[in-house]
Amino acid sequence: MVQQLVAGVHHFKRQVFRQQRELFQRLAQGQSPQTLFITCSDSRIDPNLITHTDPGDLFVVRNAGNIIPAYGAASGGEIASIEFAVTGLQVSDIVICGHSHCGAMKGLLHPEYLVEMPAVGQWLAHAEATRRIVKSKYGHLAEAERLDAATEENVLVQIENLQTHPAVAVALAEGKLKLHAWVYDIATGEVFAYDEDAGQYVPLGEVRPPAAGPSGRLADVKSGDGRFHLET
Question: Is the pTM of this model over 0.85?
């Protein structure tokens, strides 16, 4: 497998780099991505591929389950990366993108799978709200449907956690930042976005502009003036 990677590097240098030399020379001067893209570490997910973007377009954070601990609940790369993206790079959009057939969500729903992976179990504790929501609202569903529900609800839970980060809260309050909740279906290539007015995920591009005032699931769980809106 390593030999395949080495061959790939050589191909990149001989073909891809030569054809896009100007792009890489520009990137060598610095980065100015407009979007922070938070997704799962799953090897089947390629943010640049599914969004058809170039190097430098996305600032990417990846981990098991596209989880963002609430501010102060943990210290690690996620918190620092979010702060740098929002304050340092001044991204205008943050996407949290879950995906179908997520192993992290399977582990969340079945803690018995994680007996030999205690670190994974501890990490998934940051998605405990997701597990409880699924247990409360979707316990009647078949296994595959419950997994889909967990994936979708988890993205919304992590959007809520994201808003506890001071840099994010300030940028939202100033109208400089928009949040987006997406789910990618590996089998079909479809990407679904959460429509706050409809209260459900719909194919990307069919989401309506957010209505004025609080609405949808996130507004229901937020106190205050309802300024936190998901947008397309």
Answer: yes
